[in-house]
Structures are given as structure tokens and as C-alpha cells.
Amino acid sequence: MGVNDGVVEVPASDPTSTMSQEKEYDCMDCGACCRCFPIFATEDDVVLEPQIKEKGIRVENFLRTDRVAYRMHPLPFLDACAFLKEDKLCRIYETRPEVCRKFEPGSDQCIEARQRLGIG
After folding, report:
1. What residue ranges do the domains of the chain occupy?
2. At CA 9, angle to CA 27 and CA 108, rounded to 5?
């Protein structure tokens, strides 16, 4: 995992992860990851989902990388990603950014986000 450009990579599957084998984590009533961690979208993500350009904030050119083009969370006056609905489901689930697609239920980051928000 690298943090050199401010984005933590979440591996698609890591057999050495401390992911809980005993508990299944249900995303359907959670949204913790959409409320706890910075979310950045790429230009490729914007091509897939043009609404990101409208709802996100374009990252300044001197901060941009191939993985950081638009900030989706945190945003002013919002306490979650702009695409997280009140029912805690994603409005753009089918076209969500790559970083969101890579985030795994039950991963260490998932558990951390849930703990921050007091979700079991």
C-alpha cells in the first residue's frame, strides 16, 4: 500500500488481511466508508460517471495525479460523499469511482470507519 500521493491503495483481495472471518459486513445500511475517509476520483472515473465533475471539487493542478483529479469527500457543508443517499446507498453505485469499487466490506479500513461512527 502506498501513501505517496495522499491516497491509500486498498488491495482487491489480500489473504494476509486481518479481515474478520467470523462476521459478514453489510454495506446496505452503513455508508461509513463514504463518511470517514477522503474520496478522490480520477479523470477515468469522470468519463464513466460525468456527475462526479458536477458534484465533486476539481483538485488544483499542482496537486493532481493520475489517481487524484476530483475530491468527492470531504466537501463543504456535507458530512458524507455527495452521492451517498439518506438511506446510505450510493446514487452512482454502478459507475462509482475505482477507489470505491476497490474498498472491501470487512477490511481493516471498513472496520475502522465503522468504529469511528459507532456502527457494529
Report:
1. 27-117
2. 50
pLDDT level of residue 26 (50, 70, 90 thresholds):
confident
* pLDDT tens-digit series, residues 82-106: 999 999 999 999 999 999 999 999 9
Q: Strands 70-73 and 39-41: what pairing?
A: antiparallel
What cell does 57 get? 471539487
φ and ψ of 94, to 5 deg = -65, -25
Cα–Cα dist 56/70, whole Å:
6
Catalogue the long-range contacts made by 86-92 (C-beta closer than 8 Å, 24 or more residues apart): 88/28, 88/29, 88/30, 88/31, 88/34, 89/28, 89/31, 90/34, 91/51, 92/49, 92/51, 92/52
